[in-house]
Amino acid sequence: MQASDAYLRRAMELARASLGSTEPNPRVGCVLVAADGSRVLGEGRTQPAGQAHAEVMALRDAAARGEDVRGATAYVTLEPCSHHGRTGPCCDALVAAGIAKVVASLADPNPLVAGRGFARLRAAGVAVEVGPGAEESRALNVGFFSRMTRGMPWVRLKVAASLDGLTALADGTSQWITSEAARADGHAWRARAGMVLTGIGTVLEDNPRLDVRLAPAPRQPGVVVVDSRLQTPPDAALFQPGRPVLVYGAEDKPEAAAALRARGAEVVLLPGPGGKVDLAALLADLGRREVNELHVEAGFKLNGSLVREGLVDEFLVYLAPKMLGLGQGMAHFGPLAGLDQALALEFTSVERVGPDLRVLAGVKGRALPAADANLRE
Question: Could you give the residue numbers annotated as active site?
Answer without folding.
Answer: 55
